[in-house]
Specification:
The complex is a heterodimer of chains A (about 170) and B (about 290). Helices cover about 30% and strands about 20% of the residues of chain A. With about 170 residues, chain A is α+β, with helices and mostly antiparallel strands. Chain A has a 6-stranded antiparallel sheet with strand order 7-8-2-1-3-9. In chain A, strands 4-5-6 form a 3-stranded antiparallel sheet. In chain A, a hairpin with a 4-residue loop joins β5 and β6. In chain A, α3 crosses α4. Chain A is globular. Chain B is globular, with a radius of gyration of 21 Å. The N terminus of chain B is likely disordered. The N and C termini of chain B lie far apart (about 45 Å). Classes of the chains: A alpha+beta (about 170), B alpha+beta (about 290). At the A-B interface, α4 of A face β7, β8, β9, β10 and β11 of B.
Chain lengths: ~170, ~290
C-alpha cells in the first residue's frame, strides 16, 4: 500500500512537470518594450522567431505561475530589475493561427499530442524544453511550428493573428 | 552681423577630410555637389569662407535668408532635439548664401559666405559648452601635422547607431516628428542579440527603404508606429483597431512584407515598395491615416 502511494505521488509530481498543452491552457510570451504599441497592445513582432530559432520560446502556465515566469523573464531579459510585459495566449490560439496560415496542425489522440506537418512528416507542435542554463525555467516550452525555417509569409500571418485578432492586454508585472 | 570670438579657420586638409566622410554625424560635410565645391573653390577660398566661430551666449534667432534643405519642421526637429540632448545639428546652405551669413544653433556660430552648396552636419552634445569644446577640438586639426584625423569634430559618434548614420540625410529631410525619430533611434540602438541569440540589429537598408517610401506618402499619411523584427528589418504599423490596420516590413532587398486589414478584406503577402504604394493609392491612402485612438 505504502509503495503504491509512493508510486502515485511520484507520478503526480512527474505529471506536474510535463505540460499537457490542452487547447485551453495558456502559454506566456515575453514582450519586449518596443513590441508594445500604443495603448499597450502587443505588436506582431513579439510573435516572430529569431533568425536562428528552431521554435518560438514560450512558457507554460500549466507548470508555473505568471509571477514565477515573470521573475524568469525579468532575470533573463532585464538583468533582474524592472517590469516585464507578458502576452499569454491559449494553445488553441496558436493552433488556430497556424491553421489559418495554412499549416496542418491536429491533435493526435493516440499519442495525446498536437502534431503538425513539417512537409517531411509529422512533428510535435508544442514541446516542453526545460531551460537548464541560468536563469533556469521549468516551464520553458517551444511552439515548434513557429521557427526560422517556416516560410516567412506563414510566420507573419500567424503573428498577425496572435497580435491583432485576439488582442489581450499584456500582463505587466 | 558681427562675428564674435573667431576661433579658427578650417584648413585645406580639414575640408578634404570633411568631403571624404560625408553624411556622418560628428563630421561636417561638404554637401551634395562635392565635386563642384572642390573644383570651384580653392582650399584658400574655402578656408577663408568657411569659418567656425565660437559664440558665447544663448540661442539667438537664425539669420539666414537663403537656406535650403532646412525646412521648417526639420529645423524645429533639430532644435528641439538638440535641446533634449539628442545631439544633432544639421545645416544646409544654398549656393547663393548671403555674405556674412551667420547661423546660431545652441551657441555654435557658423559663418560663411558664397561657398557653394555646403552642408554641415555636426553631432554634439546638448550642452552648449560641450558644443564649444567639440568645435574647438575640431579646429585643432590645424595642429595635426599629418592631418590624419578624419573625425573633424570629436563628437560622440559612437552613440549614434550605424543605421542612423547611413541614413542621416534622409532622416534629416524626412519631416518625421521628434517622437518618431527617437523611436527609430531607440530601435537602431538595439545591439545584436537584443531579443536572444540570433536577433539582429536594425538593417540600415531596411530603414533607408522605409524613408524612401515615407517620402512618397508622408503628405497623405499620419506617422506610423515602429517596430524591429528580430531579423533586423524595420516594421511600421498604422493601427486603428483589431480589424483596421496596416503592417509593412521593409526588407533590405526593396521588397515589403505587408498585411492590410481594412475591415472587409485582408491583403497579405510580399511585394515591391512601388506596388504597395500603388495598392494604397487605390484606397486613396486612407489606411495610412489610421492611428490608435485617432
Amino acid at each position: 500500500m505504502a509503495v503504491r502511494k509512493q508510486k502515485s505521488k511520484a507520478r503526480s509530481t512527474r505529471q506536474r512537470f510535463v505540460p499537457s498543452f490542452a487547447a485551453r491552457t495558456e502559454l506566456a510570451l515575453y514582450v519586449d518594450p518596443d513590441d508594445l504599441g500604443r495603448g499597450g497592445r502587443v505588436s506582431s513582432t513579439a510573435f516572430l522567431p529569431n533568425p536562428d530559432d528552431k521554435y518560438l520560446s514560450v512558457n507554460s502556465l500549466e507548470l508555473e505561475s505568471i509571477e514565477t515566469i515573470a521573475a524568469y523573464y525579468q532575470e533573463r531579459f532585464k538583468g533582474g530589475v524592472g517590469q516585464v510585459a507578458i502576452a499569454h495566449r491559449k494553445v488553441w490560439d496558436y493552433t488556430d493561427a497556424g491553421r489559418f496560415a495554412g499549416l496542418s496542425i491536429d491533435f493526435n489522440k493516440t499519442v495525446g499530442k498536437w502534431e503538425y506537418d513539417t512537409g517531411h512528416g509529422l512533428a510535435d507542435a508544442y514541446k516542453h524544453i526545460r531551460q537548464t542554463r541560468v536563469p533556469k525555467s521549468n516551464s520553458h516550452c517551444g511552439v515548434q511550428f513557429i521557427n526560422a525555417q517556416t516560410a516567412e509569409l506563414v510566420v507573419n500571418k500567424i503573428a498577425r493573428r496572435l497580435a491583432h485578432r485576439r488582442p489581450q492586454r499584456p500582463t505587466i508585472i | 552681423m558681427p562675428e564674435a570670438n573667431v576661433a579658427g579657420i578650417l584648413t585645406e586638409n580639414a575640408i578634404k577630410a570633411l568631403v571624404r566622410e560625408p553624411a556622418m554625424p560628428g563630421i561636417a560635410t561638404i554637401g551634395q555637389d562635392v565635386a563642384e565645391a572642390e573644383t570651384t573653390f580653392t582650399s584658400q577660398t574655402l578656408a577663408k569662407y568657411l569659418r567656425v566661430v565660437n559664440q558665447q551666449g544663448t540661442l539667438s534667432q537664425m539669420v539666414a535668408t537663403d537656406i535650403v534643405a532646412i525646412e521648417g519642421h526639420v529645423k524645429d526637429l533639430i532644435t528641439r532635439r538638440s535641446l533634449q540632448g539628442e545631439t544633432n545639428l544639421f545645416l544646409s546652405i544654398s549656393s547663393s548664401a548671403v555674405e556674412g551669413f551667420t547661423d546660431i544653433f545652441t551657441g555654435v556660430n557658423i559663418a560663411t559666405t558664397n561657398i557653394g552648396k555646403v552642408i554641415a552636419a555636426v553631432a554634439k552634445t546638448s550642452q552648449r559648452q560641450a558644443g564649444h569644446y567639440v568645435l574647438d577640438e575640431a579646429l585643432e586639426i590645424q595642429d595635426d601635422p599629418d592631418n590624419s584625423r578624419v573625425l573633424i569634430f570629436g563628437a560622440p559618434t559612437e552613440s549614434i547607431p550605424e543605421s542612423i548614420i547611413q541614413n542621416w540625410q534622409l532622416l534629416a529631410t524626412s519631416g518625421l516628428s521628434e517622437e518618431s525619430y527617437l523611436s527609430l533611434l531607440r530601435l537602431a540602438r538595439k545591439s545584436p542579440g537584443w531579443r536572444g541569440d540570433g536577433s539582429r540589429s536594425l538593417d540600415y537598408k531596411s530603414l533607408e527603404n522605409f524613408l524612401q517610401f515615407w517620402k512618397s506618402v508622408r503628405e497623405k499619411s499620419v506617422e506610423p508606429e515602429f517596430g524591429l523584427v528580430p531579423n533586423g528589418n524595420l516594421r511600421v504599423e498604422w493601427y486603428k483597431d483589431n480589424r483596421h490596420f496596416v503592417e509593412l516590413e521593409f526588407r533590405a532587398d526593396d521588397d515589403c512584407i505587408f498585411g492590410i486589414f481594412d475591415g472587409k478584406s485582408v491583403f497579405e503577402g510580399r511585394a515591391s515598395v512601388k506596388n504597395i504604394i500603388e495598392v494604397l493609392a487605390t484606397r486613396d491612402f486612407g489606411p495610412l491615416k489610421w492611428s490608435y485612438g485617432g
